Amino acid sequence: MTQPNILELAKQGDVDAIASLMNRHLHPKGITAKVAFKDAWLEVTLESAQVPNQQILVAFIRKGLTGLGAASIESVKIYGQQTGKKFPAWSKEFNLGIVEDELEAVDNEESSSEPQLLTIFINLSGDTARGLTNQDFESIANKISSDILSSCTDIFIQKVSISNGSSVITKER
């Protein structure tokens, strides 16, 4: 296939042409792209010796497919997989019909500095024959809870709950 033919076929939604264009850029980086249409989705599987970088490659494929302007491609699923592994390490889905500004707004919303609420549950198991009393458990659980809540500054932990099978110690912020 010559360059213009590949590009024209890709614009028409030809999966072999799309894969050829992607692989032209990805092969030198040790990544292979496999492209198929399945259930109204364009599926792209990226495979390399190391797990492919999701952030960089999703942006690359999104930009390339948007620029291609193939009317037949509305929805895309991308899988990143290490060579020889049975299942992908990651996947990402998006709709090409969304305007680029809207995508940036969604991406910015997902990666905003809003705190993520986190609850930690810990189950302590011990040998009661060794004399671990409920009072000992409460002391240990309170110490663990205080340590977790005081040391986590980048993550907002809303609750720490520690149980030993019969008692539960919970601290909330």
Number of helices: 5
What is the overall pLDDT average?
Answer: 77
- Which bin fits the share of residues in helices? 25-40%
Write out the strand line-up for the largest beta sheet, numbering strands in chain order. Answer: 1-2-3-4
What is the global morphology?
A: elongated
Structural class: alpha/beta
Profile the largest sheet: 4 strands, mixed
Uncertain segments are 99-103
Q: Roughly what fraction of the amino acids lie in strands?
A: 25-35%
Number of strands: 7
Query: How far do the termini sit from each other?
Result: 64 Å
Alpha-carbon Rg, integer: 25 Å
Describe this structure in words.
By secondary structure, the protein is of the alpha/beta class. Helix 1 packs across helix 2. About 3% of the residues have low confidence.
Summarize the structure.
The protein has 173 residues and is an alpha/beta fold. The chain contains five helices and seven strands.
What brief labels describe this structure?
alpha/beta; 7 strands; 173 residues; 3-stranded mixed β-sheet
Layout of helices and strands, plus pairs?
Layout: H1 3-11, H2 15-26, E1 31-38, E2 41-48, H3 54-68, E3 75-82, E4 90-95, H4 100-110, E5 117-123, H5 134-151, E6 156-163, E7 168-172
Parallel strand pairs: 2-3, 5-6
Antiparallel strand pairs: 1-2, 3-4, 6-7
